[in-house]
Specification:
The complex is a heterodimer of chains A (253) and B (380). Chain A has 253 residues and is an alpha/beta fold. Chain A is built from 10 helices and 5 strands, in the order H-H-E-H-H-E-H-E-H-H-E-H-E-H-H. The longest helix of chain A has 26 residues. Chain A is globular and about 50 Å long. The chains are: A alpha/beta (253), B mainly alpha (380).
């Protein structure tokens, strides 16, 4: 590449990226319905969301807070409109057209379970939600937080939500084909699922889903050209949002 | 006592080798994530797992082997021997760290993906490699798989002192150790690690108690003091504890498969704090030790059978096999995450890993015989 070419490449790439986001925003980044398919047992659950269901039954506005990290924020897709909470909100509004359901996105990158728990008063309780989707665990696994401490924080968090009559859905880690060798997710995954089990809170199996998509070659997380990365993220978030809407639908038929 | 004969002389307590070998294989299996075989390792029958077995027996045999060296050749020689062992472990630790660096470097490309780089970057390592390397050499940086050897190294570093105390009075070693353990439980003292904010996965201030407890019992055994009476007194309580622990643990396993099975006492007992070796784990483990001491004789027939031989050999050369098992589980982990986690892959990784461990142990034992090293001093 000539110097001139290199000089031009920056703005050109930026323009392309901007275009990609715009295109993505217009709906093309939506995943196909088939892409999102997972084996039925993966989403087989008798999830209960009593407070959320009561709220809908009374036809009162319901607020859902999605608290989590960068993948909740939707940063990788380029816009929070392409995040999974946004998609979840869209789907729920379609499913329950008579009800006013708002999804508030409170994703902040690089936060441990404890950091998020400390945000509860300002970011969660202040919104007066009836359901909280708590995406948690990646940063703890990366930093190697003590597993018992991680477990304790999750339990405290769920208890705090319960005390305020808020339902909880936990969301486990993102699957990344390569990172498993250097980050030990297993212990944190097990802890997260066990906490959910003990507290009767549903754990949305994001890790398993993404691994399934990766193994079935639905999405290739490994070798993504730079220009396609945001699109890939948007499509995955899209699937995750839809899946979660489907699961919430089971709790509130 | 030249050991040109294939079988160890009857004086060697085969239980030590057999169960440590078993623990090593369980450690290997437990370290491979999402492994179905995890359901049948030691952790499935009580609250403790293979780590307890390994540390306890290591303390027990270290006390037998180095206690003899101390009695026969003096404090200085025994100390040098222990420190030499610690050095070998340290080298193994650095070797594992090199493998970790290789894995990180290999995976870096994945973290360029914006879906991951925000949170999954191996941040501290890549941002401050100079610090991470130094901290790893100081045993303070303990990423995945690098958290076990530091405990063992520290145990050996304090061991000369433990030996000297044991020789004077058994309680001179045991009481300070127990007090430290209790202090950790009461005040929740942790060992800070690198990066700041993390702690040692195996808190040496707590786990030292199990090691020294093993060493004390080993010392008592070598001098034929008190063991028989301890087993006599502890038998019935131990049996009761072990049965209850087994039932509770089993209910948790079944609950994982069928939600209708209640997970008994899970709210009270889980998580059992492994970092600090919670009393629940310690008591559950000690009950198993007492039952083993009562039910299985040191030369029991099944441990001399052909099928048990690989386990006994693994246990006898535990240092080498331990390091190898960590290495193998890291590799197995790597293969499974690079290719897939299917059943065949799992089976392959398990079978090949265990086979490599056993074959290596066989080779080491062959070499020991060629070198005419008596089996009684092998594999502390």
């Amino acid at each position: 590449m000539t110097t001139c070419g290199r000089w031009l490449a920056g703005p050109a790439l930026a323009a392309l990226a901007g275009l990609a986001v715009a295109v993505a925003g217009s709906g093309l980044a939506r995943a196909d319905a088939d892409d999102c398919a997972t084996p039925p047992e993966m989403t087989d659950t008798d999830i209960k969301l009593p407070h959320f269901a009561d709220r809908l039954a009374a036809h009162k506005p319901a607020t859902i807070v999605a608290i989590g990290g960068a993948s909740t924020m939707g940063k990788a897709a380029g816009s929070s409109d392409l995040s999974y909470p946004h998609r979840l909100g869209q789907d729920l509004s379609q499913d329950y057209p008579k009800d006013k359901i708002a999804v508030v996105n409170k994703g902040v990158p690089m936060q441990s379970a404890k950091d998020m728990f400390e945000r509860f008063p300002t970011d969660v309780f202040a919104q007066e939600p009836v359901l909280v989707v708590w995406e948690v665990g990646i940063v703890d696994a990366v930093r190697g937080t003590d597993v018992d401490e991680f477990t304790g924080t999750l339990q405290d968090g769920i208890d705090a939500l319960k005390n305020k009559a808020i339902d909880t859905i936990l969301v486990d880690m993102q699957f990344s084909p390569n990172s498993a060798t250097v980050i030990n997710f297993d212990a944190y995954l097990q802890a997260l699922h066990r906490v959910g089990d003990l507290a009767d809170a549903y754990v949305f199996p994001r890790f398993e889903m993404m691994r399934y998509w990766s193994e079935q070659n639905v999405f290739n997380f490994d070798d993504v050209a730079e220009a396609d990365r945001a699109k890939l993220a948007a499509r995955v978030y899209d699937c995750l949002g839809r899946k979660m809407a489907g699961i919430i639908h089971r709790a509130v038929p | 006592m030249r050991a040109a004969i294939p079988l160890p002389p009857p004086s060697r307590d085969l239980r030590l080798d057999f169960f440590r070998g078993l623990a090593l294989i369980c450690i290997f299996i437990d370290h491979i994530p999402e492994n179905y075989l995890n359901y049948v390792t030691i952790s499935a029958i009580g609250f403790s797992d293979a780590a307890e077995v390994f540390i306890f027996i290591s303390g027990f045999t270290a006390s037998l082997v180095y206690g003899r060296a101390l009695a026969m050749r003096g404090t200085l020689i025994a100390t040098v021997q222990v420190l030499r062992r610690a050095w070998q472990l340290y080298v193994a630790h650095i070797f594992l760290f090199v493998i970790f660096i290789a894995e990180v470097s290999y995976t870096v490309k994945a973290f360029n993906n914006p879906m991951y780089n925000e949170e999954m970057g191996v941040g501290d390592f890549l941002e401050h490699p100079h610090l991470a390397v130094v901290q790893a050499m100081l045993l303070q940086f303990q990423p995945t798989f690098l958290d076990i050897l530091p405990l063992y190294i520290v145990m050996l570093l304090i061991f000369p002192l433990v030996l000297i105390c044991l020789r004077w009075r058994l309680l001179a070693a045991l009481i300070p150790s127990a007090l430290l353990y209790l202090a950790v439980q009461v005040f929740n003292i942790a060992m800070p690690a690198y990066p700041p904010g993390t702690v040692w996965t195996f808190n040496p201030l707590a786990w030292q108690f199990l090691f020294i407890l093993g060493a004390t019992l080993g010392h008592a055994e070598a001098h034929a003091r008190g063991r028989a009476r301890l087993v006599e007194i502890a038998y019935w309580p131990a049996l009761a504890i072990a049965v209850v622990a087994f039932a509770i643990r089993l209910s948790w396993t079944f609950h994982g498969f069928w939600e209708s099975v209640p997970d008994l006492f899970a709210h009270q007992l889980w998580p059992t704090n492994k970092r600090n070796l919670s009393p629940v784990r310690l008591i559950s483990f000690f009950a198993l030790v007492m039952l083993t001491a009562r039910w299985i004789s040191p030369q029991a027939r099944f441990m001399r059978a052909m099928w048990a031989r690989p386990l006994v050999l693994c246990g006898r050369h535990s240092l080498e096999i331990f390091c190898l098992s960590i290495l193998l589980s890291a590799l197995g982990h790597f293969l499974m995450s690079e290719i897939n986690t299917g059943l065949i892959m799992q089976l392959g990784v398990n079978v090949v890993g265990v086979a490599v461990m056993c074959l290596t142990a066989g080779m080491l034992d062959w070499y020991r015989q060629v070198q005419h090293v008596p089996v009684s001093t092998a594999g502390e």
